[in-house]
Amino acid sequence: MYRLSRLRFLFPLGLFICFFLDGSLSKIFANQFFSYPYLMVSQLVVLWLIFGAFFEEDIQIPLTGFAVAAGICADLYYSGILGLFMFLYPAIVMFARALNRYYTPSFLSHILIFFVSIALLELLNYWAYYLVGVTRVGFAGFLSKLGFIKWATVLVGGYIPEGSWIIAFVIAVLINTYSHYVFASLTAHISAMFVAFSAIAISAGAPPMLTLLMIAFTSNLCMSLTHYAAGPSPVIFNTGYVPQNTWWKLGFFASVINLIIFMGLGSVWMKAIGMW
Which residue, of 165, 197, 228, 274, has the fewest CB within 10 Å? Predict the structure, then answer.
């Protein structure tokens, strides 16, 4: 039982030290942590709470209560938004506990769960700050700063078979089109995806002219996918004539038709007139 173990003293003491170090390290090593182009955030409190979930065994540490208390302190001293980390810390603890049930305890599984939990925490934290107006960095910019776009591009490129330029071309065009679900700006989409996916397809042997034109076409045709896909979209959506679910259904249907016309018939036509 927790109240009969030494952890009733050691766990809150360790949690306090981690909370103190999160702020102190960020202050002392500010130039190293927050210098362009990469940023680091000390999350020792999250590490302590998640490791408590991993190694509590039969002791049953009241992690939710500790997470709420640590969250309130973080809100008061760091975020300035009461209720933010008070909710996020317990949510991350419950998430880590739920994931831990599906994995055999090991060093690698614990590290994996910790990094997934940190990624979820940062994502939820970003959305909270964005909704209350603390940050105006778009989702695409957020993903780029995290290095997600570069990582995803390298990952996708590794799964494209060498020598099969048709498959590489189709995959690059499809991902370029439907990745716009996570973008709220055509400029951000093109800046993040155009060069990367064009290079993947061309390096696999796809005709450069065909690839560049098709990526360019789909980088604009995707603006009808969602009600936030481009500048005019929210203006039209806010008139209230088209419900969100209808917009998304029709947007997806239109994207399929566009791909058939441009990537299917268009590729054949460009071949016939000698463009590639």
Answer: 274
Percentage of the chain with pLDDT > 70? 85
Cβ atoms of 197 and 227 closer than 8 Å = no
Joined together, the tokens standing for residue 155 give 């990952």
The gap between the terminal CA atoms of the chain, to the nearest Å, is 73
Identify residue 16 by its one-letter amino acid code: F
Report whether pLDDT(150) > 70.
Answer: no
What is the pLDDT, as a whole number, of residue 199? 81
Q: What is the pTM of this model?
A: 0.56
Smallest Cα–Cα separation from 217: which of 155, 253, 260?
A: 260
The torsion defined by the Cα of 224, 228, 229 and 230, in degrees rounded to 10, comes to 100
Q: How many CB atoms lie within 10 A of CB 52?
A: 22
How many residues can be counted in the chain?
276
Three-state SS at 42: coil
Lowest mean pLDDT among 15-29, 134-148, 239-253: 134-148
Closest alpha carbon to 139 in 247, 152, 148:
148
Dist CA 60 CA 38 (whole Å): 38
Average pLDDT of the residues in 24-47: 82
